[in-house]
Each structure stands twice: as structure tokens, then as C-alpha cells.
Specification:
about 110 residues; five-stranded mixed β-sheet; 3 helices; about 35% helix; about 30% strand; elongated
Amino acid sequence: MVMEELGVVRVARDVLVTIIEQATLHVPGVARMARADGFWNRLVSRKQWPDRGIAVTVKDATVSADVHVVLEPGVNMARIGTAIQEAVITAIEHMLGMQVAQINVYIQDVA
């Protein structure tokens, strides 16, 4: 049986940002997203969603992202940071089938 190509599926970057945001917010210990600092992201040419705390680069179907968060008091910041990375990578790979180069987590504050 010969499979015919049905066409192309493209996902808007806003969808990618929403997936990253939702995966991050579902990690226990994350209070909310933080406003992203635009200087570093402009330096590395990342598309920014500063009000959502996320900056993203997609190159050859590989995602890199910066995630800015505010954590709840009393949590282990290193563990939460790692949990955010794992949750975001899993969501992107599972939902979009894309590879992930890096997920950088910036803890901006504790609420």
C-alpha cells in the first residue's frame, strides 16, 4: 500500500507558547509565570512573549525556550527548575513531536 502525502501541518508559535506555559503552571510549586527580561532574549534572537514569561526559538523543528517563573515559598528551587524542564520537554515532544534543544528556567521571585 502506498501512502500519499496529505499535506503539511504547521503549529503557530502562540500554540507552542501555550503548551510551554501550561506545562510549567502544572508543576507543583510554581506560583505563576514572571515577566521576561527582554535584553537577553533579544541578544540571542528569541521570539518573546514577555507578559507570559516565555521566549522561544525554533530552528529545524528543534525548540529552545526561556521560561521565567515565580515560585511558592519554601520549595526546593533546583528540584522545581528540573521538574519544569522535564514537564515542558515531555509536553513539546508528546504534543508536537518536536525535538527540544534546551529549556532554560529563570526563577524571578518567590510569592
